[in-house]
Amino acid sequence: xxxxxxxxxxxxxxxxxxxxxxxxxxxxxxxxxxxxxxxxxxxxxxxxxxxxxxxxxxxxxxxxxxxxxxxxxxxxxxxxxxxxxxxxxxxxxxxxxxxxxxxxxxxxxxxxxxxxxxxxxxxx
Length: 124
Description:
The chain is mainly beta. Helices cover 13% and strands 36% of the residues.
C-alpha cells in the first residue's frame, strides 16, 4: 500500500458527517463525527431543557422536578452513537470553549447515505 492511498482514505473518512435531528425544533443538520455528545439523564426534561457542561466534564441542568442537578459527565464523539439513539449534542463553536451548551437530538440516517467506494479502502 502506498502512502497516497492511505491519505486519500483517511481524508474521505475525516470529511464524514453525522446527521442529527434537533428534537426541540425538528431541524436536521450534518455535524462532524468528532462533535461531543453526552448521554441523556433520566430526569432531563424532553422539552425546553438546557444542558450545560463546564470545563469538559461538569454538567448542570434543571430536572423535570424543577431542581438544579450538577454531576460529572464523560462526553463522547458523535461517531460513537448509533442510528436512532437520543443524546445531547454540543452546539457548534470552538473546541477551546470552557462552557458548552448541549441540545437533545436523535442520530438520523442521512437522506443520501452512501458507503465509501470499495476501491478507496483496498490497498493500491
